[in-house]
What we know:
The protein is α/β, with parallel strands linked by helices. Helices cover about 35% and strands about 25% of the residues.
Amino acid sequence: MAQEPLKVAGSFVTPPLDFTRGRKQVGMEVDWLREIAKKLDRDLEFVYAPQNGLDEWIASNQCDILIGELSSLQNVEAVMMSQPFLESSVSILVDQRLRPALCCLEDLKTATVGVLEHSLEADSIQKMYQEGKIGKVVVYPLERTLDALADLTTAQIDAFARLSAVAAYLKYAAFNLKVICSLPVVQHGLCFAIPSQEPSLVHQVNQAQCALMQEGIYQKIMTKWFASEEFNIELAKDQSNKVDQ
Length: 245
Protein backbone atom coordinates (compact mmCIF):
# COMPACT_ATOMS: atom_id res chain seq x y z
CA MET A 1 0.00 0.00 0.00
CA ALA A 2 1.44 3.37 -1.05
CA GLN A 3 2.25 5.84 1.71
CA GLU A 4 0.66 9.26 1.86
CA PRO A 5 2.65 12.03 0.13
CA LEU A 6 4.87 14.15 2.33
CA LYS A 7 3.22 17.54 2.67
CA VAL A 8 5.91 20.20 2.32
CA ALA A 9 5.07 23.76 3.37
CA GLY A 10 7.05 26.90 2.60
CA SER A 11 6.82 30.42 1.27
CA PHE A 12 9.07 29.64 -1.73
CA VAL A 13 10.41 33.17 -2.08
CA THR A 14 14.19 32.85 -1.62
CA PRO A 15 16.10 32.07 -4.83
CA PRO A 16 18.08 29.98 -5.38
CA LEU A 17 17.14 27.97 -2.27
CA ASP A 18 13.39 27.65 -2.77
CA PHE A 19 11.21 29.73 -5.10
CA THR A 20 8.53 29.48 -7.76
CA ARG A 21 9.05 29.59 -11.53
CA GLY A 22 5.74 29.67 -13.30
CA ARG A 23 3.66 27.34 -11.16
CA LYS A 24 6.51 25.02 -10.20
CA GLN A 25 8.51 24.98 -6.98
CA VAL A 26 12.24 24.96 -7.76
CA GLY A 27 15.55 25.60 -6.06
CA MET A 28 18.41 23.86 -4.34
CA GLU A 29 16.32 22.88 -1.30
CA VAL A 30 13.47 21.66 -3.49
CA ASP A 31 15.77 19.48 -5.60
CA TRP A 32 17.39 18.09 -2.45
CA LEU A 33 14.02 17.29 -0.88
CA ARG A 34 12.84 15.58 -4.07
CA GLU A 35 15.85 13.27 -3.87
CA ILE A 36 15.18 12.57 -0.19
CA ALA A 37 11.56 11.71 -1.03
CA LYS A 38 12.74 9.25 -3.69
CA LYS A 39 14.91 7.54 -1.07
CA LEU A 40 11.92 7.27 1.24
CA ASP A 41 9.65 6.09 -1.59
CA ARG A 42 7.30 9.00 -0.95
CA ASP A 43 5.69 11.56 -3.22
CA LEU A 44 5.74 15.26 -2.35
CA GLU A 45 2.85 17.70 -2.07
CA PHE A 46 3.89 21.36 -1.89
CA VAL A 47 1.68 23.90 -0.10
CA TYR A 48 2.18 27.60 0.54
CA ALA A 49 2.73 28.76 4.12
CA PRO A 50 3.23 32.45 5.02
CA GLN A 51 6.65 33.15 6.52
CA ASN A 52 5.14 34.87 9.56
CA GLY A 53 2.97 31.86 10.42
CA LEU A 54 5.38 28.94 10.10
CA ASP A 55 5.27 28.09 13.82
CA GLU A 56 1.47 27.73 13.62
CA TRP A 57 1.73 25.40 10.62
CA ILE A 58 4.13 23.07 12.38
CA ALA A 59 2.36 23.21 15.76
CA SER A 60 -1.04 22.41 14.23
CA ASN A 61 0.41 19.52 12.23
CA GLN A 62 -0.65 21.00 8.89
CA CYS A 63 2.47 19.70 7.17
CA ASP A 64 5.14 17.02 7.46
CA ILE A 65 8.13 19.20 6.54
CA LEU A 66 8.77 22.93 6.52
CA ILE A 67 11.23 24.27 3.98
CA GLY A 68 12.96 27.65 3.88
CA GLU A 69 14.93 29.86 6.24
CA LEU A 70 13.67 28.73 9.61
CA SER A 71 15.69 30.69 12.16
CA SER A 72 12.46 31.73 13.92
CA LEU A 73 11.70 28.07 14.69
CA GLN A 74 15.01 27.10 16.29
CA ASN A 75 13.60 27.17 19.84
CA VAL A 76 9.99 26.13 19.15
CA GLU A 77 9.13 23.03 21.20
CA ALA A 78 6.82 21.60 18.53
CA VAL A 79 9.70 21.44 16.03
CA MET A 80 12.61 19.08 15.45
CA MET A 81 15.32 20.08 12.99
CA SER A 82 16.98 17.75 10.52
CA GLN A 83 20.72 17.64 10.21
CA PRO A 84 21.96 20.73 8.31
CA PHE A 85 22.26 20.16 4.57
CA LEU A 86 23.98 23.46 3.74
CA GLU A 87 26.32 25.49 5.91
CA SER A 88 27.25 28.97 4.82
CA SER A 89 28.91 32.12 6.05
CA VAL A 90 27.44 35.57 5.34
CA SER A 91 28.76 37.72 2.48
CA ILE A 92 28.40 41.44 1.77
CA LEU A 93 27.48 42.37 -1.80
CA VAL A 94 28.05 45.81 -3.35
CA ASP A 95 27.61 47.31 -6.80
CA GLN A 96 31.22 48.10 -7.65
CA ARG A 97 30.21 50.74 -10.23
CA LEU A 98 28.34 52.80 -7.65
CA ARG A 99 30.34 52.11 -4.50
CA PRO A 100 33.98 51.53 -5.55
CA ALA A 101 35.20 52.79 -2.17
CA LEU A 102 33.50 49.94 -0.31
CA CYS A 103 36.21 47.30 -0.22
CA CYS A 104 36.19 45.61 3.18
CA LEU A 105 34.32 45.05 6.44
CA GLU A 106 35.75 48.23 7.98
CA ASP A 107 34.09 50.35 5.26
CA LEU A 108 30.61 49.33 6.45
CA LYS A 109 30.76 51.63 9.49
CA THR A 110 29.16 54.45 7.49
CA ALA A 111 27.29 52.29 4.98
CA THR A 112 23.60 51.42 4.64
CA VAL A 113 23.25 47.63 4.48
CA GLY A 114 20.14 45.79 3.34
CA VAL A 115 19.08 42.47 4.85
CA LEU A 116 16.05 40.19 4.51
CA GLU A 117 13.66 39.86 7.45
CA HIS A 118 13.58 36.36 9.00
CA SER A 119 16.68 35.37 7.02
CA LEU A 120 19.39 33.38 8.75
CA GLU A 121 21.77 36.35 8.53
CA ALA A 122 19.35 39.01 9.87
CA ASP A 123 20.36 38.70 13.54
CA SER A 124 24.08 38.87 12.68
CA ILE A 125 23.60 42.09 10.72
CA GLN A 126 21.49 43.68 13.46
CA LYS A 127 24.15 42.77 16.01
CA MET A 128 26.84 44.43 13.88
CA TYR A 129 24.67 47.56 13.68
CA GLN A 130 24.26 47.63 17.47
CA GLU A 131 28.04 47.29 17.82
CA GLY A 132 28.64 50.27 15.53
CA LYS A 133 30.12 48.17 12.72
CA ILE A 134 27.36 49.15 10.26
CA GLY A 135 26.02 52.67 9.72
CA LYS A 136 22.39 51.80 9.00
CA VAL A 137 20.28 48.70 8.32
CA VAL A 138 17.35 48.50 5.90
CA VAL A 139 15.17 45.42 6.41
CA TYR A 140 13.25 43.94 3.46
CA PRO A 141 10.49 41.30 3.65
CA LEU A 142 11.94 37.89 2.89
CA GLU A 143 10.11 37.68 -0.42
CA ARG A 144 11.54 41.03 -1.67
CA THR A 145 15.04 39.95 -2.71
CA LEU A 146 14.53 41.60 -6.10
CA ASP A 147 13.59 44.89 -4.44
CA ALA A 148 16.79 44.77 -2.41
CA LEU A 149 18.83 44.13 -5.55
CA ALA A 150 17.05 46.97 -7.33
CA ASP A 151 17.91 49.34 -4.49
CA LEU A 152 21.49 48.08 -4.46
CA THR A 153 21.94 48.73 -8.18
CA THR A 154 20.41 52.23 -7.95
CA ALA A 155 22.39 53.32 -4.86
CA GLN A 156 19.38 53.34 -2.52
CA ILE A 157 21.43 51.09 -0.26
CA ASP A 158 25.21 50.68 -0.23
CA ALA A 159 25.44 46.95 0.39
CA PHE A 160 23.33 43.82 0.77
CA ALA A 161 24.00 40.94 3.17
CA ARG A 162 23.16 37.38 2.20
CA LEU A 163 24.29 33.82 2.89
CA SER A 164 27.53 33.36 0.97
CA ALA A 165 26.18 30.50 -1.15
CA VAL A 166 23.20 32.64 -2.14
CA ALA A 167 25.33 35.74 -2.70
CA ALA A 168 27.42 33.80 -5.21
CA TYR A 169 24.22 33.07 -7.14
CA LEU A 170 22.84 36.60 -6.91
CA LYS A 171 25.96 38.06 -8.51
CA TYR A 172 24.59 36.76 -11.81
CA ALA A 173 21.40 38.79 -11.45
CA ALA A 174 23.40 42.00 -11.92
CA PHE A 175 26.86 41.59 -13.39
CA ASN A 176 28.43 44.48 -11.50
CA LEU A 177 27.78 42.97 -8.07
CA LYS A 178 30.84 42.02 -6.07
CA VAL A 179 31.37 40.26 -2.75
CA ILE A 180 33.67 42.52 -0.74
CA CYS A 181 33.90 40.39 2.40
CA SER A 182 32.44 37.57 4.46
CA LEU A 183 31.55 38.05 8.09
CA PRO A 184 34.11 36.44 10.41
CA VAL A 185 33.08 33.43 12.50
CA VAL A 186 29.46 33.60 11.36
CA GLN A 187 28.24 30.26 10.06
CA HIS A 188 24.61 29.30 9.45
CA GLY A 189 23.12 25.91 8.71
CA LEU A 190 20.02 25.26 6.63
CA CYS A 191 17.76 22.48 7.95
CA PHE A 192 14.30 21.08 7.39
CA ALA A 193 11.76 21.51 10.22
CA ILE A 194 9.63 18.50 11.16
CA PRO A 195 6.89 18.23 13.83
CA SER A 196 8.37 16.93 17.09
CA GLN A 197 5.72 14.20 17.21
CA GLU A 198 7.35 12.68 14.11
CA PRO A 199 10.84 11.66 15.37
CA SER A 200 10.90 8.68 13.01
CA LEU A 201 10.56 11.01 10.02
CA VAL A 202 13.47 13.12 11.28
CA HIS A 203 15.57 9.95 11.48
CA GLN A 204 14.51 8.84 8.00
CA VAL A 205 15.32 12.24 6.49
CA ASN A 206 18.74 12.32 8.16
CA GLN A 207 19.53 8.80 6.97
CA ALA A 208 18.45 9.66 3.42
CA GLN A 209 20.64 12.78 3.46
CA CYS A 210 23.69 10.79 4.52
CA ALA A 211 23.11 8.17 1.82
CA LEU A 212 22.58 10.76 -0.93
CA MET A 213 25.73 12.61 0.06
CA GLN A 214 27.73 9.39 -0.13
CA GLU A 215 26.25 8.70 -3.57
CA GLY A 216 27.31 12.11 -4.90
CA ILE A 217 23.77 13.38 -5.48
CA TYR A 218 24.24 16.31 -3.13
CA GLN A 219 27.30 17.56 -5.00
CA LYS A 220 25.44 17.40 -8.32
CA ILE A 221 22.64 19.57 -6.92
CA MET A 222 25.10 22.05 -5.43
CA THR A 223 26.94 22.28 -8.74
CA LYS A 224 23.69 22.87 -10.59
CA TRP A 225 22.64 25.80 -8.43
CA PHE A 226 25.90 27.32 -7.25
CA ALA A 227 28.72 26.35 -9.59
CA SER A 228 27.19 26.16 -13.07
CA GLU A 229 27.76 29.65 -14.48
CA GLU A 230 25.76 29.03 -17.66
CA PHE A 231 22.75 27.72 -15.70
CA ASN A 232 22.84 30.55 -13.19
CA ILE A 233 23.02 33.22 -15.86
CA GLU A 234 20.07 31.68 -17.68
CA LEU A 235 17.98 31.75 -14.49
CA ALA A 236 19.13 35.26 -13.66
CA LYS A 237 17.90 36.80 -16.90
CA ASP A 238 14.32 36.93 -15.62
CA GLN A 239 15.50 38.42 -12.32
CA SER A 240 17.63 41.15 -13.92
CA ASN A 241 14.73 42.16 -16.13
CA LYS A 242 12.49 42.55 -13.08
CA VAL A 243 15.15 44.57 -11.27
CA ASP A 244 15.25 47.08 -14.12
CA GLN A 245 11.49 47.65 -14.16
